[in-house]
Amino acid sequence: MTPTRGDAVSDEAAEGLIVDHDGRKSIGHASLAQPRSPATVHGTLVLGLTAVVVMALAGILLVVSTTTTQVAEKPQPTRPPATTLPASHAPGFKPWAPLSVSSPNGRKLAYMLYATDDLQACNALIAAKKVRALGTPTFIDLVVLVTEDVSAQACQVLTDGGVRPMNVARWRRKTGGDYYKDSLTKLRIFQELGYDRVIYIDTDTVIMKNLDALFHLPHAIFWAPRAYWLEKLQPFITSVLLVVDPDNARFEQLERAIETETEVRFDMDVLNVEWQHMAGILPSEYVVLTTHLKHDVDKYLFGYKSLMDRVNHTYIHHFSYSDQYIKPWTMDVDAIERQPHVLPLFYDLYEEYWAQRRALCSFL
To answer: Which domain of life is it from (predicted)?
Structure first.
């Protein structure tokens, strides 16, 4: 224990010394005047020691009181979860180790998409085929969660294409626009459906790079990139890409939140309301909007040197509303006129979608 000032005074008093205000020691004047009797010396020592003890206790109480006040006035900040990564690309960010040739630790892994009609089933098949074409090994399943409105023919085409259709109940919120009315269905990826880790991808996307390394991420409630384009809402995650370790208790928490939270309308809302500060954050180049494939858009480079540098590091392009361009299945691809300020890749993504749809989706 660190000595206190009271301890030093006690020793000096016992030696018959006096300490003046600037710390110098001298022999006490009373001891020079006349010898003191043993009883007097004993009494003096008792009184001195008593005074020292009182001073020490007062000092301790003062320290405790000051510390308590400081803690009350300045609460300790809550540390962020250890599983978070930078919100955007950073020079020090390094990819995770590549996936081994066998399933790590015997875990069951899957890519998941969802479909509530035949059009979405087609889009899911296109995405699943792209996942496999980019090198994902066959021990990782490709699964599409399908509701009752997906036809038997579409399910058979999925199966023939190496994709597993899995029947689930539709999950619909009563409020909201028509396009997103069934988007809550995707949250069934949080249910325990036989897989230890799931990478979920929206079907209105084009996958550009292999995502298997995400299976090696440490555990978190879920991992996702931020919706970087919603600048005023940050921090705010997007549900276009999710990495999930399914847990029925977590799923039930989502169910309760959707029933009780008034601001929850869509899947992305509930994830941000419930777990905004608990999710693992992926760098923003994991999901980039197609509307940002323009030469005059240099705002969202995420630390890369140029627009093309960012494009070359993008994992998923998400079809978004841009000028007259909307989702590719709502447009006539042959009527698209290329503009010089837009990257050729923007148009290539639309053409890729239509080429794959014609080749794979005979049921439409």
So the answer is: Eukaryota
